[in-house]
Design brief:
about 140 residues, about 0% strand
C-alpha cells in the first residue's frame, strides 16, 4: 500500500476485490443449489442461493465502480453495506443454529462471514488511505 496512487489490498484494488468476492459467492451459491440433496419429492431449496444473492450486488458495485470512476466511492460504500449484512447474517445464523447445519450450509455461512469480514477490513483501510491522501 503506497500513500499515493490507488489503494491495493492483497495485490488488488477494492473494486477488484468486490468483483472477485462477488464471483466466488455467485459460484458457491449456484454450486450449493445444484448439489444439495433435497428430501424425496421436494424441490431444491432456494435458500442455498443466498451466497449468490449477496455476491451479485457486490459484483455489480465492483463493475459499476470501474465504469463510473466519479461515483466509485458511492459504489464502494454500498458494497461495504452489503459486506456488513453478509457478515452479520452469516455470523448470527452460525451462532444460533450451528449444531443443526449440514456441511453445505455451514460452508455457505462461513464463506459469508469470511468474505464479509475481509471485505470490510480492506474497505476500511481503503477509506483511511483515501482520507490521508486528501489531507496531505
Amino acid at each position: 500500500m503506497l500513500m499515493s496512487g490507488e489503494f491495493t489490498q492483497w495485490g488488488m484494488t477494492i473494486p477488484g476485490l468486490a468483483n472477485m468476492y462477488g464471483c466466488i459467492l455467485i459460484f458457491w451459491g449456484l454450486f450449493s443449489y445444484f448439489t444439495q440433496t433435497p428430501a424425496e419429492g421436494a424441490d431444491p431449496s432456494i435458500t442455498a442461493m443466498i451466497p449468490a444473492f449477496m455476491g451479485l450486488p457486490l459484483l455489480m458495485m465492483g463493475v459499476l465502480s470501474k465504469f463510473n470512476e466519479a461515483n466509485r466511492h458511492h459504489y464502494m460504500h454500498a458494497s461495504m453495506a452489503v459486506a456488513l449484512i453478509m457478515f452479520l447474517a452469516g455470523a448470527s445464523r452460525m451462532l444460533t443454529g450451528f449444531s443443526e447445519m449440514s456441511n453445505l450450509v455451514l460452508v455457505s455461512h462461513m464463506l459469508l462471514v469470511l468474505v464479509g469480514a475481509s471485505f470490510i477490513f480492506a474497505g476500511v483501510k481503503s477509506f483511511r488511505h483515501a482520507r490521508l491522501n486528501r489531507e496531505s
